[in-house]
From TrEMBL:
Residues 1-24, 736-759, 1163-1229 are annotated as: Disordered. The keyword Membrane applies. It is a multi-pass membrane protein. Residues 15-24, 1168-1190 have a biased composition (Low complexity). Belongs to the potassium channel family. Calcium-activated (TC 1.A.1.3) subfamily. KCa1.1/KCNMA1 sub-subfamily. Residues 1198-1207 have a biased composition (Basic and acidic residues). The chain crosses the membrane at residues 57-79, 153-171, 191-209, 274-295, 311-329, 341-359. This is Calcium-activated potassium channel subunit alpha-1. It comes from Iconisemion striatum. The keyword Metal-binding applies. It holds the Pfam family Slo-like_RCK. Gene3D superfamilies: 1.10.287.70, NAD(P)-binding Rossmann-like Domain.
Amino acid sequence: MLAEADGTVPHGSESSMRTSNINNNINPDSSILISKMDKVVIPFSPQVPCAEDGQRMWWAFLASSMVTFFGGLFIILLWRTLKYLWTVCCHCNVKTKEAQKVNNPANNQAADKTAKGPDEKEEAAAASEVGWMTSVKDWAGVMISAQTLTGRVLVVLVFALSIGALGIYFIDSSDPIESCPNFYNDFTLQIDMAFNVFFLLYFGLRFIAASDKLWFWLEVNSVVDFFTVPPVFVSVYLNRSWLGLRFLRALRLIQFSEILQFLNILKTSNSIKLVNLCSIFISTWLTAAGFIHLVENSGDPWEDFKNSQTLSYWECVYLLMVTMSTVGYGDVYAKTTLGRLFMVFFILGGLAMFASYVPEIIELIGNRKKYGGSYSAVNGRKHIVVCGHITLESVSNFLKDFLHKDRDDVNVEIVFLHNISPNLELEALFKRHFTQVEFYQGSVLNPHDLARVKIESADACLILANKYCADPDAEDASNIMRVISIKNYHPKIRIITQMLQYHNKAHLLNIPSWNWKEGDDAICLAELKAGFIAQSCLAQGLSTMLANLFSMRSFIEIEEDTWQKYYLEGVANEMYTEYLSSAFVGLSFPTVCELCYVKLKLLLIAIEFKSEQRESSILINPGNHVKLQDGTLGFFIASDAKEVKRAFFYCKACHDDITDPKRIKKCGCKRLIYSKMSVYKRMKLACCFDCGRSERDCSCMSGSVHSNMDTLQRAYPLSSVSVHDCATTLRAFEDEHPSTLSPKKKQRNGGMRNSPNCSPKMMSRHDPLLIPGNEQIENMDMNVKRYDSTGMFHWCPSKDIEKVILTRSEASMTVLSGHVVVCIFGDVTSALVGLRNLVMPLRASNFHYHELKPIVFVGSLDYLRREWETLHNFPKVSILPGTPLSRADLRAVNINLCDMCVILSANQNNIEDASLQDKECILASLNIKSMQFDDSIGVLQANSQGFTPPGMDRSSPDSSPVHGFVRQASVTTGSNIPIITELVNDSNVQFLDQDDDDDPDTELYLTQPFACGTAFAVSVLDSLMSATYFNDNILTLIRTLVTGGATPELEALLAEENALRGGYSTPQTLANRDRCRVAQLALYDGPFADLGDGGCYGDLFCKALKTYNMLCFGIYRLRDAHLSTPSQCTKRYVITNPPYEFELVPTDLIFCLMQFDHNAGQSRTSLSHSSHSSHSSSKKSSSVHSVPPSNRQNRSSKTREARDKQNATRMNRMSQEKKWFTDEPENAYPRNIQIKPMSTHMANQVNQYKSTSSLIPPIREVEDEC
């Protein structure tokens, strides 16, 4: 009845069976006795269900722990006491002897010399041997040490088993405090027994390895073992279980941070501190809850356990939390005296811990980086990492160009990495592009952060530079360190970085894993900025056109007939690349270019040419001698990436009759037969169809082709192919036997790049010794160096800066015309802008010496001295010390007669206020525009010498359709002077032109100064980062266009010597001169005058391409040309790639890529002085020359045969002597110059030079001419 009344009899226990038997034998008459017994037993029955006599056995479990702890402590203390007494009493003599040895070191040497006795030797040997106790101790230390793999596994296993034992405690806490389970039937008791056996073994290892046994005995982990391990063995022996102090296993949670550090999970100090605080707080909380659970469910011993209450363990956890937080709802509270006494002391420590730990934990969690996660790569989607200068401006410009809709589908995710969290504006920008943009806070100098953004699987890493920093060299050093860090972490990653200074690019070559052939690129802003400005000196407005081509702009439609309408139509064009269809294989470049423009509405300007040695080079408008190979990569100007696909899908069999280019898509025909035909056969088929004969009667056909002609013609009918001189092309093809290469299409739309030098396959054409009519061999001097060692630039021996300095009076006496004036602001402390990059394109070797424009620098001499080390090897350069704000200095250099005035500043980044960064350049520009000039100066014609296309007669200078600029006969106001101004802040462009209507918030490319080519900002170069990533050939192409031919080989040379090295002219170096250059074609006179008045641009394009191999790609038109009334405005704007039907006006200037003229240099020397005089006195339009009449060609053709024979004999003789040559005469003419009224001495000098059929060289070229 007692057991049934309590309802707590555990099943299967022997004591419960015995109690049940007793109750069954009691007769009904003893009910009164039983009721009395119930009053005594009932209070204890919930805790002692299996006790026959109602006695509890908790003291046995507690005694086992206490005896173990105090017994071991007594033994340790006793051992230490005996050891101390043994040392003091029995070994005092030994200490005395040792003290004597220490106090008398002089006697030690004598003692060492004497022979030791046998006893001393044995003692020494015993001391030197390692005892077995020491060996066991070392072994135990290795086993529990976390420095070894075994130790780490053992430590982690002990922690895991401790947490497992704590879990078993949580399960058993729902049972009574004391029960009588059967060990063989209770599964949790068996598991707990196994765990404690392992704990006992581990305790033994720790005890053996401990150096100080006393401190080990008092450690927290040892105390936990004392009060948890012995009670388990007692419970097995007594067949009784006591929940007891098993909650102490929660103290093992304090080691949680150590375990995570062993597993390399925690690496940062904040994470370790956070885990430490949390583990200490939680372990203390759970341990205290376990004690409250024990005493409240047991009661006070001195009260015979009558005041107990039933609380679950989790209710005790709740009680402790509300107590620590001082809330104390009162729904649960302690009733026992032990519980209340414990709560008194716990609330002191618990409140202090809660008040200190919890805020610190919250602070650590709150201070965790919001962007401190890791990037998760998506299968099938590439990602790039962008780092460096991450600001709202740089990121917005980058994303605007990178994610432009004209790029078709950009399946690339952009991961930004920066060590500073973004501000609200930048964060909002990231959220707007959250589908393709992610931001992570960190540094690329930290390998851990590089691992977070998965740099090893990234497609590329882009590094942005701060273009507005005060110290460009420091900014470049930072980016170079970023490159080193990234390459050190993953050498194969492709890196595209921005550099501010050109001379800092050399440091990238010191990185072993830097390889430009694998896609690594450095976009030097100073180099490209100077190159763009230099090209504007050769063809005004070209900087704007090139900047728009490499930037992604959306088409803005304007209905009104204004200049903005035509300008914006051209702005929508960009540069794209695509592989050409196999239908173009074997055709010459001009033929394919014409076909693409007329048929596909695409402008092809360059190709990637692969030689037989599989070396790649980018050829810009190469000419007729280049035949397209299979898999040739073309560079197109188009408004959309989808349009360029026409060049890849074009099929002659399917698309020959299509007039709408939008219908040219991937065809369904099987072009296997045509594609498998050799280039040789395809060229013969095209040739025979062009000659109009049947394939069997044509002499061009071979027998092997005749046999298959019927089948081929039925399968693929061939229409007329626009191949000029097909028989000549075919013979050249048969002689060269090119191997058609089929290179794999790369992952990015581009091919392997190489230096833009000419291919070895084309060397026969470029060799000057093989050019008919080359009269310059007689003037060659093997001892004169006129070009640098690469043959890409004009060169002269280094000159001292004092020899090129002009005073104001000397500059006034030297009449300058057709020159370039560079106004530079700078001082001793200014950062170098890199004037060499401005001069190099103007000294490219594809100009003849007499075509070089003299360059005059006007600025601080202290600053120019610092730049002169990089300029002293260029000819026709002079310096006028002064200031660009001085009108006297500007008049001294004849700024009204210059071809271009460039305004630069090296002080722009030293001013904090962005609106004042361009104050010097703006003031100089407005100063020049407000100047007035005397009309009498107009007698000095500011004409640029014309460039004659190859093949035209050079007997008269009036034979070239190409010129530099169309200028007024006299410049009376500074507003008509061609000026290009460099700006740092885009918004300052509104101050350059006072007659424009540009809003201050208007984007730079929409403003009038930029559209006219009179302003240039470095911000337009930001788009090159995206363009270079999508096509690694783009940067090579633009550097070839604007730098005049700078190659990676030249950069390596400049890195070694920091100066150009002169070289003797060889056929190989002279071949490098044969590359196209940009020029401007006039329409109001000359061979294209008939098209200038209402003609179509497409007709002009085809005529220039067929006749002179000149590739037209834009128009430089007067701003008010669309108006019906005449206008006095001389400002022009740029129109890029007009459509075929675009109507021309006579005042238009056409941008074109013209071939190098081998005969221009030698013909210049044959011109008499009288021809120059007549030319200078002619009308201004004489700079735009006309095509020579046919009778002149016939007359000159008769003498050409004799000259060819003479040249052949001379070439044979010169080749046998194996001499090196130059192709420029030593007495090359300068530009057209006449003299102002001057002194008698100066007039005598003029007469002296006139007698030698040459004009006075400008800028002291009399003494230093190269």
